[in-house]
Amino acid sequence: MPLKDPCQKQACEIQKCLQANNYMESKCQAVIQELRKCCAQYPKGRSVVCSGFEKEDKENLTLKSALK
């Protein structure tokens, strides 16, 4: 039996917030930040819902390195 994703609850909260706010990401920053906090607690690859943030972080690091 696969392990439950530790950040699934926060991901669902983001979806609810986005739906309630006509998909305006700016209105959901607090719940997005909660998901980021959850993701930071676990090693990379542990949470499937965090994979988008992990990819975003990697791209940001690559961009910063290129700008130096």
Please name the defining characteristics of this protein.
68 residues, mainly alpha
CATH architecture label: Orthogonal Bundle
Q: H/E element string?
A: HHH
What is the general shape? flat
The name CATH uses for the topology is: Helix Hairpins
Can you say what the CATH homologous superfamily is? CytochromE C oxidase copper chaperone
Most strands sheet: none
Low-confidence stretches: none
What structural class do the secondary elements suggest?
A: mainly alpha
Strand content: under 5%
| Average pLDDT rating | 85
- Kindly provide the radius of gyration, computed on alpha-carbon positions and rounded to a whole number of angstroms: 14 Å
**DSSP helix fraction:** 55-70%
Measured distance between first and last alpha carbons = 46 Å
Report the strand count.
0
Number of domain modules: 1
CATH class, please?
Mainly Alpha
Number of DSSP helical runs: 3
Briefly say what this structure is:
The protein has 68 residues and is an all-alpha fold. The chain is 62% helix and 0% strand.
Task: Report on this structure.
Helix content is 62%, strand content 0%. By secondary structure, it is mainly alpha-helical. The chain has one domain (7-67): CytochromE C oxidase copper chaperone (Helix Hairpins), CATH 1.10.287. α1 runs antiparallel to α2. The longest helix is centred in the last third of the chain and has 17 residues, at 51-67. The protein starts with 7 loop residues before the first helix and ends with a helix. The model has no long low-confidence stretch (mean pLDDT 85).
